[in-house]
Specification:
Helix content is 39%, strand content 16%. By secondary structure, the chain is an alpha+beta fold. Strands 1-2-3 form a 3-stranded antiparallel beta sheet. Strand 2 and strand 3 form a beta hairpin. The chain is globular, with a radius of gyration of 13 Å.
Length: 69
């Protein structure tokens, strides 16, 4: 039976992260642009996420700032 294994992401949902960090609209949009790029990348390869919602997008702190997963 095929299955998919994903990495464990220790972070907050995108909405929780933005609220906790009190991000401005511009900062929130920067994160959203990264999410859109990832979705585009997946779609170009025939991968479709059937349950894409804020609770399924996590944000972690990376060396270059917030990193959505």
């Amino acid at each position: 039976i095929p299955f998919l294994v994903m990495e464990f992401v220790d972070g907050f949902s995108i909405t929780e992260y933005c609220d906790i960090k009190r991000l401005s609209i511009r900062e929130r949009l920067r994160i959203l642009v990264d999410v859109c790029g990832a979705v585009e990348h997946a779609h170009q390869r025939g991968i479709i996420h059937r349950d894409l919602k804020p609770n399924n997008v996590f944000v972690t702190e990376g060396p270059n700032g917030p990193s959505p997963k």
